[in-house]
Design goal:
224 residues; alpha+beta; Immunoglobulin-like; 34% helix
Amino acid sequence: MNTYTDKTTDTKSNAVANSMAAKQSSEKKIFQAEDISPEAAVQRPMHEAANNSKQVKQLRTVQDMANDSQKSKSAGKVAQLEDIEMEEIRARVATCVTNGVVHDIGKSFASVSSKATHLQETDRVIYEIAWDAAVAPVGHEGMHAVAHTASDFIVDRSQEGEAIGDSRAHYRRDGANGFVFEFRDGIEWPTELNGGSWRFRLRVVNGAGTEVARSAVAIVNWTH
């Protein structure tokens, strides 16, 4: 048979002794770590005053501003690279070609096809025309051409005066090509033109007003 021995008192005594020893050790470490010498007592306020001085605070402010500026520049560069990458992904394509010229029964006929693809909603397409003096399109209600006067590229307009590129009827969505502008300019002039040419081109301008695409010039040569 095992004999039961009450060891509760011994255990409690040992615990109290250990606790007091640990406390004394901790107090000793704190006492040893803290320098209470007269020199330290004098230097401590001076050190704290130096840390809180106006010059130190200004230096810290300048350093914080420099750190913030560096972060802003880095973020700006990343954003700029992302914008460039997106612009490349959405590269617009503009084309403008002449389909042919015909003179018949005292009239002149021609056809020009223009197209711009991968457009964004904020892009503006500008369909332009230029002409030689001998074939100025006098009588076109929307152009205000002057007889025997040449013109550099200007916005081409309908007989009603609307810019061709502003007509929403010429826009559509086309899968991989995105937002598309397409216009077939069927020209039928009531007299027989001769001795010069009309020139057409297509330009695309983004929402910021920057030209992002331009077609080659399509030439309708009326000389025969």
